[in-house]
Amino acid sequence: MSLPATSHTIHIEQLRKSYNVGAAVTDVHYIIKDVNLVIRGGEFFVLLGPSGCGKSTLLNMIAGFVSKSGGRLRVGNTEVNKPGSDRAVVFQQADSSLFPWLTVRENVEFGLRMKKMPRSERRSVSDRYIGLVGLNGHEEKFPKELSGGMKQRVQLARVLANDPAILLMDEPFGALDAMTRRTMQKELVQIWRETHKTVIFVTHDIQEALLLGERIGIMSVGPSSNITDIYDNTLAYPRDVAASEFYALYNRIQSHFEE
Ligand SMILES: Nc1ncnc2c1ncn2[C@@H]1O[C@H](COP(=O)(O)OP(=O)(O)OP(=O)(O)O)[C@@H](O)[C@H]1O
């Protein structure tokens, strides 16, 4: 990592996203309204909230895919108003992001090829990340020959190969079976600890949030959603769902959604 962690701290101030729902200027529907948040460089931050509250909207604003309607959004000192190589998104459906006509290795190397990285260097980068996500031996396979979990690993390896400082993950394990999901969660923590990336991970699953995040931001039900509470999760990794502290924190967070 060439940049100091502070240069990719994310600063969010009074951030808003709205859509006009009628002809009058007052016919405005706010998805998120006045969100304030600072996410430190290198942090693992989870955005937790019910379906439709605006988690993906906020993540896509940080990615630069969705424009803001008000407020400020900076990475370091730079205002975010478009996608950038410092940020990359891992989506829930790997199928829509992988190129079906390219092998695992070619998919992982795609961005590097676009950057005109020499072949031997590309090879060593793709070797590293294919290994890191546990896909050694599958380099020459095509996406259609892979399971859902393996495709998600390819997507992650491709994103990591491009070396963004910030990984934006939108329910990346939501479509996987429970066992694969658990394995991927453990591997992601391992990868985060090895690469020191900033991770912002969207989920509506409290257990997943608690297994992964150093901090968990709770989003309120929309419209005009906001981050109402932030929990510090200081439990040591790898986390044990059966530990009494885990269970206690789970209950505290769950009580938010029962009110
Ligand atoms: N382009 C748009 N125009 C109008 N409303 C939109 C637009 N995009 C999203 N919305 C609305 O914004 C709200 C938040 O959507 P978003 O996908 O961000 O929520 P989410 O918390 O990620 O949901 P889920 O967990 O179900 O994926 C929803 O009510 C959605 O219908």
TrEMBL record:
<dbReference type="InterPro" id="IPR027417">
    <property type="entry name" value="P-loop_NTPase"/>
</dbReference>
<feature type="domain" description="ABC transporter">
    <location>
        <begin position="10"/>
        <end position="246"/>
    </location>
</feature>
<dbReference type="Pfam" id="PF00005">
    <property type="entry name" value="ABC_tran"/>
</dbReference>
<dbReference type="GO" id="GO:0016887">
    <property type="term" value="F:ATP hydrolysis activity"/>
</dbReference>
<keyword id="KW-0067">ATP-binding</keyword>
<keyword id="KW-0813">Transport</keyword>
<dbReference type="GO" id="GO:0005524">
    <property type="term" value="F:ATP binding"/>
</dbReference>
<dbReference type="InterPro" id="IPR017871">
    <property type="entry name" value="ABC_transporter-like_CS"/>
</dbReference>
<dbReference type="InterPro" id="IPR003439">
    <property type="entry name" value="ABC_transporter-like_ATP-bd"/>
</dbReference>
<protein>
    <submittedName>
        <fullName>ABC transporter ATP-binding protein</fullName>
    </submittedName>
</protein>
<dbReference type="InterPro" id="IPR003593">
    <property type="entry name" value="AAA+_ATPase"/>
</dbReference>
<dbReference type="InterPro" id="IPR050166">
    <property type="entry name" value="ABC_transporter_ATP-bind"/>
</dbReference>
<keyword id="KW-0547">Nucleotide-binding</keyword>
